[in-house]
Amino acid sequence: MKETTEIKCNVIDVQYQLCLAKDQQNMAPSTPVFDSISTEVSRFETVVKSSAAKLFPRIRSGSYADIGSRPSMDDEHVRIDDLSAHLGSYFKCPSSFYAVFDGHGGPDAAAYVKRNAVRLFFEDVHLPQTSDVDDAFLRALLNSHREAFLKADSALADKSIVSSSCGTTALTALVLGRHLVVANAGDCRAVLCREGVAVDVSQDHKLSYLPERRRVEELGGRVEGEYLNDHLSVTRALGDWDLKLPVGSTSPLTAEPEVQQFMLTEADEFLIIGCDGIWDVMSSQHAVSLVRRGLRRHNDPELGARELVMEASRLHSADNLTAVVVCFTSPNPVESCEPQSRRLRFFCLSEEARSKLKSLLGSN
């Protein structure tokens, strides 16, 4: 039974093997994701060495959301494990798409971007028609994500869609073969578990982040403590047109995302995407360790996401809570301790000890 389970964990479909082979031919160093991620790319010597080769199984994901202590639920999220079911043969490699939208000033902005996510990010963009995921394709893909954020932002300028005081942060993650593209505007966060170590693959856009604070101040934004223009705790968001300059102007509050791309390796176990309600009360490493322990017990990303949200609630998060867990590998189960047979041990007592024992027993 154990051997069968190991084989199942290492089997991937033919389409995915072909994709890995294509990546092997066209692989190039990925764009660095901050200083914490090495620029060196780990290469497979062969696509499939044996049934015991540690290859990525079919992606699995789970999500969980809770209103928390807020009077309304303004979070939305997208979870698509099989993007081809929505786009047909748009991508030649297996692809998945995930997103978290954390609304403020009401739920309407987040709900609009969620409803139109597939159209904004894939149907309305122009990507090269090629079967190769090469450098040119990836550059076009990163640019298309930037355009999608800005198009969504422009749409939210229409007061017939949402109020001008309504907005949302947004974080998306596209898995294309072994390529991961993360785009972020706001304080949602994406974190990789790399052999148990948390690796942030997005940057929180807050005034506490010095490059963002400088950018805002250089563009004339008013900074009061940790708030932009006495109102927002984030420096990037979609919508919020009562705080932005007219369409076409460069505004301190911007919807332009930071987009990063890199290559997944065998060391990357899973990805967590969460709204700021999670990160307000726990570190990236705390979240990764919690989810990793859970997955080793039950191997259920849905339950892992729920446990993460419940932990944030236990730590008294004051916000809506949303988490998505995307598994790239099957975890090694926690080894259970086999019950050992009882062993009888015999002790030799000295003559003096035997005498004392007899004396004690006699007195009782």
From TrEMBL:
CDD domains given in the database record:
PP2Cc (cd00143)
Listed A to Z, the keywords are: Hydrolase, Magnesium, Manganese, Metal-binding, Protein phosphatase
User: EC no.?
Assistant: 3.1.3.16
One matching Pfam family is: PP2C
Q: Which SMART domains match?
A: PP2C_SIG (SM00331), PP2Cc (SM00332)
Query: From which domain of life does this come?
Result: Eukaryota
Chemical reaction(s) catalysed: O-phospho-L-threonyl-[protein] + H2O = L-threonyl-[protein] + phosphate; O-phospho-L-seryl-[protein] + H2O = L-seryl-[protein] + phosphate
Any one cellular component term from GO for this entry? nucleus
Residues of the PPM-type phosphatase domain? 60-328
Required co-factor?
Mn(2+); Mg(2+)
GO molecular function (one) = metal ion binding
Q: Which family does it belong to?
A: Belongs to the PP2C family.
Q: What is this protein called?
A: protein-serine/threonine phosphatase
Q: Which gene encodes it?
A: LOC105122037
